[in-house]
Predict the 3D structure of the following.
Amino acid sequence: EIPVALAERGVPTQLVTAGSATDYLQHRGISSEVVAFSSTAAEVLGQSYPRVLLVGTSENRDSLGLALVARARSIGIESIGVVDSVANVAYRFRGWSDSALAFAPDWMLVPDQRTSDAYVALGYPDRRVVICGHPHYDYVRTVEQQQSMRGRAVVRTAVLPRAPSDGVVMVFAAEVSDGLNPEQFHRSVEYTLEGRGVSNRRTDIVLEEFLDSLHTIRPRPYLVLRLHPKNTLDEYTDYLHEFDYVSTGGDHLELIYAADLVVGMTSMLLMEAVLMGRPTISIVPRRIEKDWLPSIGSGATLCATTRSEVRSTIKSLVDVKSPISCDDRRNMVAWGSLERTTEFIEKLVQKRGKAKALPRSMYDRVGK
């Protein structure tokens, strides 16, 4: 929502995407200018000469976002980095260098104090970190309010027409077994979960522990596998027969709202489920990963790191079906992030003085 909010403040923007971000935004009905993989940072910035560059982060160490920050630095364009959580802060702006801050922007927008402290500990200037919350959290709350007016029974029938009306619906949120620090996503001596002993992938091991924990749950829950945008169906061929439904693409928030229990590892989807008031369980193969998801630290998401914990935690939530209280969500999240974020960006743009004129087509696009 940031480009639209900035446009309303009279700040024209150019939204540029590459890779899976393009498809994700298209599913949300948000158009962007798609950058070819062959494009250089000089070419992208040369199109509009922006006063301010705003970049997200990627699990790709060769991400164009890193090159954009470096190019902006070299030609005097101020840059802002947006970080969604405390996970892997030391790798967000590292690229292939040995320095965690090699491609760090001039300013950092972070969702909470923990993320701010983590960057300061790495040597990033404290005065350059802005705690603004997360605009997406506000969006999720809005969706939840809309769905609550319809009612969970109606939403469930619409999203999962074959799910029993009186049964338990469980959603498992898959993730990619790769990332900014790939060795973390494969079996190691630190793992406290075994899985079925066939795959060494983090997601597979956790998924196997989850599926095997359900053998004693009666009646059998209705199981939904929700794929990550970067997942392919082929990755889960060995497990598809154990699920009743596979969810791919599109907006997944209705699915989360319809669920009785959302299980995963440390993805954004679990945070979204908490914000929608759904019970959540994070299953992680290493205890250190508990720090990757804010809702674990707040107590809103239960976490299991051993087989016995997985089984007992799932059984307890199935028996209780306890939603997350509004108080838990209020204490965990700083609401109103969009206004704080856009206000900061607007002030920074104003400080930069007059921008070189954007192409007429760019103004037209923002207006639309």
About this structure: Residues 355-368 have pLDDT under 50 and may be disordered.
